[in-house]
Amino acid sequence: MRTTNRLLLTSLLVLCPLVAVAAEDAPSADPDVTIRTEGDKFIQEYRQNGFLYAIKITPKHGKPYFLVRADGTDANFIRSDQPDRLIPAWEIFSW
């Protein structure tokens, strides 16, 4: 009986760090939300495991709207209330 208890205790001590490491690597179910202000707009960026999948824009005067990924892979965003209009993502000029 005493040997069984020692063996059980030793196995628990060996497995505890492995369980802790496995729990840290698990993907998060909750999105990461980054909140920033740009001009007169209030912008919330929603990310899941580092992948930007939606942006909520709340203008100072007007109705809030969401930009979501068009196809889920590249940076083409569309408005959720106007899915036929693509939002351009290129930069024409910079200083």
TL;DR of this structure?
The chain has one helix and six strands. It has one helix at residues 2-25; strands at residues 32-38, 41-48, 51-59, 65-69, 77-79, 82-87.
Account of the 3D structure:
This protein has 95 residues and is α+β, with helices and mostly antiparallel strands. It has a domain at 32-87: Protein of unknown function DUF2782 (S-adenosyl-L-methionine-dependent methyltransferases), CATH 2.20.130. The chain has one helix spanning 2-25, and strands at 32-38, 41-48, 51-59, 65-69, 77-79, 82-87. The protein has a six-stranded antiparallel β-sheet, with no helix packed on it. The protein is elongated.
Topology, please?
Elements: H1 2-25, E1 32-38, E2 41-48, E3 51-59, E4 65-69, E5 77-79, E6 82-87
Antiparallel strand pairs: 1-2, 2-3, 3-4, 4-5, 5-6
Oligomeric state of this protein: single chain
Q: Any idea of the CATH topology of one domain? A: S-adenosyl-L-methionine-dependent methyltransferases
Count every helix, treating DSSP H or I runs of 4 or more residues as helices. 1
CATH superfamily of one domain: Protein of unknown function DUF2782
Largest sheet: 6 strands, antiparallel
The helix/strand series, from N terminus to C terminus, equals HEEEEEE
**Helical residue percent?**
25-40%
Query: What fraction of residues sit in β-strands?
Result: 35-45%
Structural class: alpha+beta
Low-pLDDT ranges? none
CATH class of one domain equals: Mainly Beta
Terminal-residue CA separation: 77 Å
Q: How large, in whole angstroms, is the Cα Rg? A: 24 Å
**Mean pLDDT reading:** 76
Shape: elongated
Name of the CATH architecture of one domain: Single Sheet
